[in-house]
Amino acid sequence: MTAFLARSLGSSLEGRRLLADLRRERDLTLNVLNNLNEGVFVADQAGTITLANPAAEELIEVRPGQRLPDQLRAIVAAAGHGGEPTPWKGRYLAIRRALLGDAQDAGAGVIYVARDVTTDLAAQQRQSDFVAFVAHELRTPLTTMRTLTSLLANEDTPAVKRAEYLGVIATQIERQTKLVRALLDLSRLEAGHYELPMDLIDVRDVVREAVAVCQPLALAKELEIQVSLPSSEILAQTSADGLQQVLINLLSNAVKFTDPGGELGIACAVAAGHCRMRVWDRGIGMTTQEQQMLFVKYASHSSQDGREGIGLGLVISKLILDQLGADIQVRSQPGEGSVFTISLPLKTIDSSTPPAATPSPGKDDPAS
After folding, report:
1. Percentages helix, strand, coil for the chain, rounded to the nearest 5?
2. Is 54 among the domain residues?
3. Beta carbons within 10 angstroms of residue 207's beta carbon
4. Whether residue 227 sits in one domain with residue 94
5. Number of domains in the chain
6. Are residues 340 and 237 in the same domain?
7. CA neighbor of 310 nearest in space, from 62, 101, 141, 133
8. CB count, 10 Å around CB of 338?
């Protein structure tokens, strides 16, 4: 009798443990399903949905107890098991399906896994467009140079024309060099192999050097780069080379998108432990959509007046500033110009030197 009771008690305890284990596994499975970004839902052979996680309810708008929408049933049937992207209510979904149970089981249901690939497809398209754009940018100068070298080989070409052709070839070589350098910079930055030596610098010196580099470009368009710097030092532990590259890119863009006789400039100030550098212009400006794509890799840019750019300069600038712990913001309106603001943390600064006062916004600064 005692042995029987002991066995019965043991069986009861074992049953409770098994039941507790099953509950834990059920709770774990539900927790995983409820936190998946992919939509998971199950439908029986009649097409009635028996299970749907929150992502499925949001992505596809299906709920347990409902029938599979006819449109969705057709899409899934056409997609088969491959999970090819398919349009669904303004988005693209990749839907995979599999039978639950044996293939010979007439009552087996079907489990579906849906993933929103809209962003992925957009990124793939940008990359494809970018490759095509780079190929065009490389091919066009080569075609020009091939034509001009043929003309130079002709002994009847006048000396004046030879000098002109050589000047065009030199310009195209420089254009190619800049593009290849930008591609290499982007590759090194993404791989973490782009060295930015950090030193204690006066930010004002970097600003002056960047302005000096861009001044000839401005003068060629009858533009003057207006510079506003505080009288006291702005000391920062950062990379002079990296910061200068960013400022040159911003200033050269400001020159490019400002018509002859227009206004542009750079202003520097210190506030709340940060150096704020504003590169501004009263050029053609940008739409909200154009601003959203400025720092997106593989996005080639074309302005409202048809001036195009490969878009690498700003992407590289953003990656450099990320390494320096700095931030960049942009404000722009079509026809009114643009303002790029860099906020650089002053990690090392002489506490005995009072911070430079923020210059009052003037008529020459659209940030006002």
Report:
1. 45, 20, 30
2. yes
3. 24
4. no
5. 3
6. yes
7. 133
8. 27
Domain annotation covers residue 14: no
Could you tell me which residues come within 8 angstroms of residue 84 by beta carbon, excluding any fewer than 6 positions away? 94
Helix (H) or strand (E) holding 17: helix 2-35
Two structure tokens written together for 47:
């097409």
Per the domain annotation, does 364 fall within a domain? Answer: no
Q: Are residues 42 and 153 in the same domain?
A: no
The two structure tokens encoding residue 159:
């000396």
Residue range 323-339: mean pLDDT, rounded: 93
Q: Which three-class secondary structure state does DSSP give residue 205?
A: helix
Q: Are residues 187 and 205 in the same domain?
A: no
DSSP letters spanning 260-272: TT--EEEEEEEET
CA 181 – CA 162 distance, rounded (Å): 28
Domain shared by 228 and 275, yes or no: yes
On whether the CB atoms of residues 42 and 100 are closer than 8 A, the answer is yes
Q: What is the pLDDT of residues 213-253, one digit of tens each?
A: 899 889 989 999 999 999 999 999 999 989 998 999 899 89
Whether the Cβ atoms of residue 248 and residue 210 lie closer than 8 Å to each other = yes
Task: Please state, in angstroms and as integers, the Cα–Cα distance from residue 263 to each residue in 37, 210, 306, following that order.
Answer: 49, 17, 20
Measured CA to CA in angstroms, residue 367 lies from 30, 252, 289, 330, 331 at distances of 52, 19, 20, 10, 8
**Adjacent-strand bridge partners of 113:** 40, 96
